[in-house]
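Hey, sorry to bother you again with one of my protein questions. A protein chain has come my way and I'm curious about its shape. It would help a lot if you went through both lines with me. I owe you a coffee for this, so here goes:
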Amino acid sequence: MKKLTTLLLLAVALAGCGKKDEAANAKPEATPEAKRDENIVTLTKENLQNVTLKTEPAQLGSLGMTLKAAGRVSANLNKTAKVTPTLEGRLTKLNFDLNDRVKAGDVVALVESPEFLGKPLELKASIDGVIIERNVTAGELVDKSKAIYTISDPAQLWAIAEVKERDIAAVKLGQNAAFTTLAFPDEKFHGKVVLIGNQVEAGSRTVEVRIAVGNADGRLKPGMFADVEIVTTILDNVLLIPDSALETEGENQIVFVALDGNKFEKRTVKLGLEQSGRVQILDGVKAGENVVTTGGFILKSEMLKGQLGEE
């Protein structure tokens, strides 16, 4: 009996030792890796040195809603005058030619008339400006039905916009406007709406809108075609970013927001109005956050490479 008991105790002891050995030799279970945030792009120092990235802060500002219209540059008729004889006679002398600059009071032409005995009748400029039309030559018979010269001030012009009938209700006097021309496609000229036509042109179904514009340097010429934008509504205190920050991902518009150091976060954004290279952000970015305006496609490529590597 004692012998049997001893054998049982020995067996139990050996079994316990075996379990301890297994526990000692067992490998610890692998700790699961932290899941990578698929919206974060991390660039190495080397990558940062080799790529060009530029950022700008999202800022609160004003944005205007605009309507577009075709138009043309015109002389300002309020700054234009014609030189016309008051009597019938023969034009004996023209003192100025096209594009000559004159001042109010300058004698621009002489007319001899049997009704005006003695010295010739002096025709004078009534305004300062430039001669934009000359309609006669010396020696012609002239009368009050025909202007000899047209003088206009080139420093003050009009842009005439042909606004569609359906849009005209949004146009108001005093609204800001801007336009470009074929001669200066990358430069905007600015003015204000000073007159809205009172009739719709039958063929084009448009209304003429007159915009006063300064032209001190004389680059604009009457007759130039113009692409006009009239600011019809101003929105204040809206969040704006440069449109160069936008990237397309499927049906969504995204931006990359700079985080600390070398990290950038992809954000899906909801857009509002857009004007002059700026776009309104309704959701996805906060004021003061720096968005990538140059190099966003590089971050997008790095993100795609990371996703392919995981697969």
User: Anything to note?
Assistant: Residues 1-12, 30-34 have pLDDT under 50 and may be disordered. The first strand starts at residue 40 and ends at 42.
